[in-house]
Amino acid sequence: MSMIRNSPKLDSYWMPFTANRQFKKAPRLLASASGMYYKSDDGRDILDGTAGLWCVNAGHGRREIADAVSEQLRTLDYASSFQMGHEHAFRFAERLAAIAPRGLDRIFFTNSGSESADTALKIAIAYQRAIGQGTRTRFIGRERGYHGVGFGGISVGGIVSNRRVFPLLNGADHLRHTHDLAKNGFSPGLPEHGAELADDLERLVQLHGAETIAAVIVEPVAGSTGVLLPPKGYLERLRDIATRHGILLIFDEVITGFGRLGAPFAADYFGVVPDIMTTAKGLTNGAIPMGAVFVKREVHDALMTGPETGIELFHGYTYSGHPAACAAGQATLDIYEREGLLTRGATLADRWRDAVNQLRAAPHVIDIRTIGLVAGIELESRAGAIGARAHEAFADCYEQGLLIRVTGDIIALSPPLIVEEGQIDQMVSTLGKALAGVK
Ligand SMILES: Cc1ncc(COP(=O)(O)O)c(C=O)c1O
């Protein structure tokens, strides 16, 4: 229970993706953050096992980012990017292009992962039309995919609660998800079984006709629905089928981008290059909202036609390329480069995997999956109460000073990439104690 003095009234703020009434009865309020730790409003240190929400990859309270934003706001607080510009957006885009997977060197700025997903889908449609493939208006997503909360994102997404209430884009269809505990439980690396599930794309081509499909979008590693790793060979096969049928491949790297897997992007980690890649979160270390869509040069160039006075893509946001966000992003890249954070996960991955696998013996654990500095720990659900066990573990960890993330009965860990070995052990032992107390 919060012991905050002068506590705010909680009624007015309608919280996102939150059980508002439950939360407001027993709020968990954070007051400050530094390095690997939050401080709660009652003064306790909380080890951040989730990098905020998969975004604070360089750790909290980075002074360089705060200083860059502050300086930027004093110099040029805002400038439109519609028929205007400022140097910071161009500089930041150039730096991103330099670290992008091969060929993805045209960058469109957004303000979030959801906007990045919808932007990528729109670019795909516009591209297909520009090359004379205007009948290609259909998208293929995947079950258990998460691509944010825009109408495009939920249409290609595969989380039923996010979809059932809302009208969806016409014609979106889905690949089956790749999660198969019976065949792949406790895989030490990527799952052995399931590459053939990529052939679902071939099946959907047979069903709908390739000439109706603009793009297929997947998370290389599904994050929000519980850290689902791609089976060996799956992404390669998807790439191959998409290419064969003129379908653009979009990787949603909102979670996997910026070092989470131990490589700059999942495309680098898996050696599979998409045509479009969405990012956000780690782009600015979570300090200022921003997203970036990385687009293959050929896709971009196909739209740079018609009279030079004409706008090539009728799309953009008031805050696309916001100067403060560009400043935060560049300061973030400086830190990533200086501290080697985009590849640090690779050096810690084995240590991380071995530590997290100590939880194998903990009660209720039915699978453990790790890659880079991510872990998914899946619990057997209590009969009639899906999610109850993980939620109890979450609440207990928070009381013991550890922030974890849960989806249903899957616990996800994704610490800032500055995590030290001792902190990894602290996470595992705190979570182990919490699980021991869960009925
Ligand atoms: C893969 C993926 N795409 C898109 C999003 C949406 O990002 P945002 O919440 O910034 O809109 C998320 C958020 O978790 C995500 O994990």
Describe the structure.
It is a single chain. The protein has 439 residues and is of the alpha/beta class. It has two domains: 20-61 and 341-436, Aspartate Aminotransferase, domain 1 (Alpha-Beta Complex); 66-339, 3-Layer(aba) Sandwich (Aspartate Aminotransferase, domain 2). 37% of the residues lie in helices and 15% in strands. It is built from 16 helices and 15 strands. The protein has helices at residues 20-25, 51-54, 63-75, 87-99, 113-130, 151-156, 160-163, 181-184, 200-208, 234-244, 266-270, 297-303, 323-339, 341-356, 388-400, 421-436, and strands spanning 30-34, 37-40, 45-48, 106-110, 138-142, 173-175, 213-218, 248-252, 276-279, 291-295, 365-371, 374-379, 402-403, 405-407, 410-413. The chain has a seven-stranded mixed sheet, with helices on both faces. It has a four-stranded mixed sheet with strand order 1-2-3-13. Strands 11-12-15-14 form a four-stranded antiparallel sheet, with helices on one face. The protein is globular. Residues 112-114, 117, 146-148, 219, 223-224, 252, 254-255, 280 line the site of pyridoxal-5'-phosphate. The site of pyridoxal-5'-phosphate has 14 residues, from helix 5.
List the helices and strands and how they pair.
Blueprint: H1 20-25, E1 30-34, E2 37-40, E3 45-48, H2 51-54, H3 63-75, H4 87-99, E4 106-110, H5 113-130, E5 138-142, H6 151-156, H7 160-163, E6 173-175, H8 181-184, H9 200-208, E7 213-218, H10 234-244, E8 248-252, H11 266-270, E9 276-279, E10 291-295, H12 297-303, H13 323-339, H14 341-356, E11 365-371, E12 374-379, H15 388-400, E13 402-403, E14 405-407, E15 410-413, H16 421-436
Parallel strand pairs: 3-13, 5-6, 5-7, 7-8, 8-9
Antiparallel strand pairs: 1-2, 2-3, 4-10, 9-10, 11-12, 12-15, 14-15
Helix pairs in contact: 3-13, 4-13, 5-12, 14-16, 15-16
The structure holds pyridoxal-5'-phosphate (PLP).
